[in-house]
């Protein structure tokens, strides 16, 4: 809780090519995307519980507190989110009769410092992911590094760990090899800028 405002700061979440900022702005590839208030609350709950089931009752009670909201309202929110997030990514899974689960890798940034390195180690997350999920995780770290949202060297190293996991599972994965080339290039640039000047 913030001692000045008395409010609990909201977290920023990074997933795939998306950033849900602490102020509620949803950004993809540098562009803001409008997200209605109820859908925003549902997305926050799903991202905050990434990989775990969020029951319909919890969603209804949290998003429509003190109201007798119908499941159709929740279903409509999920539909809007899937359409917005391009459901081909399969981010939101339905657990029939129970609720929903966010299935993609999520990097929560610390609410105060916005420091993604406070999240679980990439090796741990990548070990539990399918190859495509680990590649998304690598993309997230690369984006954070290149946007200056985390320490560049540490972010690139986290991306390398995720790519290494994919290559352990599928040695010839062309997408992983392309990212490995980018990671290696970024590491070379970081090392070159850290060298003392000649002379």
List keywords for this structure.
199 residues; alpha+beta; Arc Repressor Mutant, subunit A; 2 domains; five-stranded antiparallel beta sheet; three-stranded antiparallel beta sheet; 8 strands; disordered C terminus
Describe the structure.
The chain folds into two domains: 12-102, Winged helix-like DNA-binding domain superfamily/Winged helix DNA-binding domain (Arc Repressor Mutant, subunit A); 115-194, no CATH class. A hairpin with a 3-residue loop joins strand 6 and strand 7 (99-102). Mean pLDDT is 76; it is low at 1-7, 112-128 and 192-199. The strands form two sheets. A five-stranded antiparallel β-sheet has the order 4-3-2-1-8. It has a three-stranded antiparallel β-sheet with strand order 5-7-6. The protein is elongated, with a radius of gyration of 19 Å. Helices cover 48% and strands 13% of the residues. The protein is built from seven helices and eight strands. The chain has 199 residues and is α+β, with helices and mostly antiparallel strands. The N and C termini lie far apart (52 Å). It has helices at residues 37-48, 56-63, 71-84, 122-127, 131-146, 152-169, 174-194; strands at residues 12-15, 18-20, 26-28, 31-33, 54-55, 92-95, 99-102, 107-109. GO terms for molecular function: DNA binding. This is Winged helix-turn-helix domain-containing protein. Keywords: DNA-binding. Residues 10-104 form the OmpR/PhoB-type domain. Residues 10-104 bind DNA.
């Amino acid at each position: 809780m913030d001692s000045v405002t008395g409010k609990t700061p909201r977290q920023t979440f990074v997933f795939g090519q998306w950033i849900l900022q602490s102020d509620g702005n949803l950004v993809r590839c540098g562009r803001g995307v409008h997200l209605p208030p109820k859908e925003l609350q549902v997305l926050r709950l799903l991202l905050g519980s990434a990989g775990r089931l969020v029951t319909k009752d919890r969603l209804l009670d949290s998003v429509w507190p003190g109201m007798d909201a119908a499941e159709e309202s929740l279903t409509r929110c999920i539909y809007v989110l899937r359409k917005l997030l391009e459901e081909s990514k399969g981010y939101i899974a339905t657990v029939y009769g129970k609720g929903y689960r966010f299935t993609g890798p999520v990097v929560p940034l610390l609410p105060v410092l916005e420091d993604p390195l406070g999240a679980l180690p990439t090796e741990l997350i990548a070990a539990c992911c399918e190859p495509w999920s680990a590649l998304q995780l690598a993309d997230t770290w690369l984006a954070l590094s290149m946007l200056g949202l985390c320490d560049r060297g540490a972010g690139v190293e986290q991306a390398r760990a995720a790519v290494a996991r994919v290559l352990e599972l599928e040695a010839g994965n062309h997408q992983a090899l392309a990212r490995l080339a980018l990671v290696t290039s970024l590491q070379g640039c970081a090392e070159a800028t850290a060298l003392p000047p000649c002379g």
